[in-house]
């Protein structure tokens, strides 16, 4: 053994780490701290072996090495470790950073002496080196990326390029550099040792290779449970139910098939010279290019097959876990078990789990035999409950949303998200432009029942702006007339207007007794939303000449009940584009009252700093360009790569196809693609204010949120908007059936509507709905008499 040249007690390291005191202020730590890729970690026994589980810095749950939503800043990770008594913090390697992580295991003995070969590596002195949490290993971090991650148990060496978190202790090895540098000699020496150990163990490059921006997570740090075969089946079923979430990520040029829910990928896009395409439908996947060419499965494939064949996965397990990541599903919820146990038979089982398009047949997951009458495939209703995967975005948006949620007496994830998006979009306003030169100002409208705590997010939005020295961006909570809107825009072209009872405001504006100046408010709002970085000319009226406003960027954060909002809308508001300019975030939830977990009055310093870092395009020198008369040259946030742009283009194509198939949906979806780009840009700048770029993941998140909102808008407009009283009664009945789960007895219907509809009117409208096929009526024998049940079709 070689002496280290300094006094060292390995056991003291472990004891010290149990009371984490933070990392030292040295260049290497400062370089890593520039990235929002930090987690805390805890010790846990798994299968009799000690493991280090990554911990989400924001809420203390499990983190993932491939989900940026579960990471935070070094400050957040340090705070979490201290508050929870955790051993320390770690840094997540990604394809986007410029670091390679190196682990050298068990090379320091109990006396503090180092193995000679390891001492020689350290003596090269190329880059930062520290002692691992156990006190017996070394961690080196080098600048630059290796071509592929490599692990050799025989050599005791692991080299990682991405999709892995590294515990960071800050216990620097004396005489090693304090900063992170390229380390070509170090890497060459390590690879030579790995090659020398090859006879004892074949070198297995990590499956973490392939396209950098697609996630494959070995999940060594995730708790496994359940049955392997059940896990594969559930992943396939979930993926078939959410094709629109993952197919465009793998195949940016995929075409959506309106009316069927299916996607089509041409052979040309797959890089082959065949005529037949790949079809991905909710009831199964078929590669028609091989189905009649002797393929063992007749061309039939599972989502896991597709992810394995066309994604970055090196095994069926990795393909399944990649799908979980993209679908925002915790693998444990689908029965994730120990990786080694699944890997033994995983590929074989996954190959048999093929959902057939013919006669609804399916392979039995255990035997591989064909069985009839398959269990129904669970599908995600695009206009159903708010997907939890959208509620936890990474970066500043996610941090603000979490804080708003934690400070609420009646906490709602969807309300907190709307508040956070509007705040970050406002801070960016007039100075950051998306890849399509879109602005970042939003009209966000939360619809929720009375007593749902809607006013909380309005108060917190203004509180964050005030704490961030942005009180000048706080706009009025109501406008009396169009001239009032114009005068305000001339004074403050960038603002956030937190508006309570937005439905009542719109009802006044659209009312029959409204003046011309009141009725013109909605036209002005439409102009502001669409202007982005263009010029907007104000109207001219007696005593007031028309003026030019450069890049108006007024955001609205409004709340209302759905009944009040849709009752205030007129049919023209759908056609003229007022409604589709709103990001509608409805919820039926009425959260229970609780004591806020965090003080609503205390805005964390990191949120304030995050907001300020995004104001004026991140350049305080732009403060002088805040007047409405000043022309704006925005900082354009580019696409990160062709994949990101491909997600956007596929979305545009999908919306156009939907409009061609159903022209009546066009007014609801025509601006959804631009809405998605705005949201994706806000998310991107919220993660990186120094050199942001919209990634495929950012765009997919923006797409999913915007499409969910538009579908909700379409669904709710049909259930709430009415031209006549009879139509309003019909909508009320349909909503009542929907709220009852899609089926309701006549007796329950009467009970729910007894104060809102007369019995004769109810009878007439029910008969009309049955005749039109909107609902069905069924006589069901009961105790003493036959009852009538109504079901929505």
Which key features would you list for this structure?
793 residues; five-stranded antiparallel β-sheet; disordered N terminus
Q: What is the secondary structure topology, with strand pairs?
A:
Blueprint (H helix, E strand, L loop, with lengths): L9 H9 L8 H7 L4 E9 L2 E7 L18 H11 L3 E6 L5 E6 L11 H8 L4 E4 L6 E6 L6 E3 L4 E4 L3 E5 L15 H13 L7 E2 L22 H14 L1 H8 L4 E3 L4 E4 L12 E4 L2 E4 L12 E2 L1 H8 L5 H12 L11 H14 L9 E2 L6 E2 L23 H12 L6 H16 L3 E2 L9 E5 L7 H13 L14 H10 L2 E6 L2 H9 L5 H4 L1 H11 L3 E3 L10 E3 L2 E8 L1 H7 L2 H5 L6 E5 L18 H10 L20 E2 L5 H20 L4 H4 L2 H16 L8 H25 L4 H15 L3 E3 H8 L5 H14 L2 E7 L4 E7 L1
Helix pairs in contact: 6-9, 6-10, 8-9, 11-12, 12-13, 12-23, 14-17, 15-18, 21-23, 21-24, 23-24, 25-27
How would you characterize this protein structure?
Helix content is 38%, strand content 16%. The chain has 27 helices and 28 strands. It is globular, with a radius of gyration of 29 Å. The N and C termini lie far apart (77 Å). Mean pLDDT is 80; it is low at 3-17, 200-228 and 338-384.
Low-confidence stretches: 3-17, 200-228, 338-384
Characterize the largest beta sheet: strand count, sense, and whether it forms a barrel. 6 strands, antiparallel
How far is the N terminus from the C terminus? 77 Å
- The total of helices stands at 27
